[in-house]
Amino acid sequence: MNGRKINSLGIWGNTDKPKFWQLLDPLIKWANQNKIETFITTRIKDKTKEVLPENIRIIEKADDFLKTDFLIAMGGDGTILSAARAVGSRGTPIFGVHLGELGFMADVIVENMFERLDQIANGSFSIQERMLLKAEIHNSEEGKIFYCLNDFVIDRGKYHRILTMRLNSDDRHIADYDSDGLIISTPTGSTAYSLSAGGPIVWPKLNAIVVTPISPHTLTLRPLVLSDDSNLEISFPKAKTTNIALAVDGQVENYLQNNSKIKISKAPYSIKMLDFEDSNYFSTLRKKMGWGKRGDI
User: Fold this and answer.
1) CATH for 8-125+276-289, among 3.40.50.10330, 3.30.565.10, 3.40.50.720, 3.40.190.80?
2) Which CATH superfamily is domain 132-268 in?
3) pLDDT tens digits for range 108-154
4) Strands (E), the chain
5) Residues known to be catalytic
6) Which 3 state secondary structure label does DSSP give 189?
7) Residues spanned by CATH 2.60.200.30 within the chain?
8) pTM for this one?
9) Residue 242: its pLDDT value, please?
């Protein structure tokens, strides 16, 4: 296991959930008892109705994450994804705690949160690297760059006709997809939108790129798993719309022109997630998604 001494933690959470506020004070008290310096976000500070201890520090800018040994993200998968975007390339490990029932990205729940925190304080944890993808948008305007932990989704947006997308990898033509869109996902994102569209489950410790069409207009175009060193390019040879949408980890970030090209590759950095020796990815699959279970007869 890690054996690393923990001296500081950051708190990131879904402040719209009452459960978060119920846990905030016990979490701060736990950190004080373990002589761990606590940082909270400005959003938490501005929304709290309680008087915070004087030794609480505030994360005021992104580089303040560098002052924390790990970041606890309390909420659902969306909260963990937003924490990953905030941390970016700074390397601060994320400890995800699900406050609801549907989250999948971490198997820690409220009932065992403090048990896991005690393990972290004792150095009984490991770091799991999670691959990200990078997308570069090329068109007549200035290029834009996005990063995702789960997936990039290119779909027809406000356009109501089938979208034709041409997929190349390292200048080799793969296929023209006539469909509602394409999902380009990481192994972490393989259990998100890609799975519901018929894509494969990919163990998150692998490095790979998953390409899953959304409602393809043919039975022969199936999902693909490509090497993580693939350099993908997506273009729109027949599109007559400027409303093609690009969603990054579930959020629509951009509407594309029909002359746009999207270049997708493995990001130059990864997201670090805290992991434990007795964690079992496949147990989480069975528990959260009913994987491998037969229906009632």
Assistant:
1) 3.40.50.10330
2) Probable inorganic polyphosphate/atp-NAD kinase; domain 2 (2.60.200.30)
3) 889 999 999 999 999 999 999 999 999 999 886 667 999 999 999 99
4) 8-13, 37-41, 57-59, 70-75, 94-98, 126-138, 144-148, 151-155, 163-169, 172-179, 181-185, 208-214, 224-227, 232-235, 244-248, 251-256, 261-275
5) 77
6) helix
7) 132-268
8) 0.90
9) 67
